[in-house]
Amino acid sequence: MSFVFCILRNWLESQKGATAVEYGLIAAGIALVIAVSVFAFGGEVEALYASLDGALDGP
Predict the structure, then answer these.
(1) What are the CB-based long-range contacts (under 8 Å, 24+) for 7-13?
(2) Residue 45: what pLDDT?
(3) What are the angstrom distances between the C-alpha of 43 and each of 9, 35, 36, 38?
(4) Rounded to an integer, what distance in angstroms lies between the CA atom of residue 22 and that of residue 39?
(5) Which among 22, 46, 24, 42 is positioned nearest to 34, based on CA atoms?
(6) Looking at residue 34, what is its pLDDT?
(7) What DSSP character marks residue 16?
(8) Distance in angstroms (rounded) separating the CA atoms of residues 4 and 25
(9) Predicted pLDDT at 3
(10) pLDDT at 14
(11) One digit per residue, pLDDT tens: the chain, 59 residues?
(12) Of 3, 21, 19, 23, which is closest to residue 11 (Cα–Cα)?
């Protein structure tokens, strides 16, 4: 029985997955910033590309 408790305790104290979770949270934060930026500035960027397209078409 002590062997089972020892294995269970080692498994609960293990921090191997902590780094993966931290990287996942960082990636989610970056994705959120990108999504908010696209939503906030999407119309302005579209207008900029439209004006560039018109300028590059020429006469």
Answers:
(1) none
(2) 87
(3) 54, 13, 13, 9
(4) 26
(5) 42
(6) 94
(7) T
(8) 33
(9) 85
(10) 76
(11) 688 888 888 877 776 767 788 898 999 999 999 999 989 998 898 898 888 888 887 66
(12) 3
pLDDT in the model for residue 9: 84
Q: What does DSSP assign to residue 34?
A: H
Using CA atoms, how far apart are residues 12 and 35, in angstroms rounded to an integer? 36
The dihedral of CA 21, 23, 27, 30: what is its sign? positive
Residues for the chain: how many in total? 59
H or E stretch covering 26: helix 18-57
Separation of alpha carbons 45 and 58, rounded Å = 21
Q: Is the pTM of this model over 0.90?
A: no
In angstroms, the CA 31 to CA 8 distance is 36
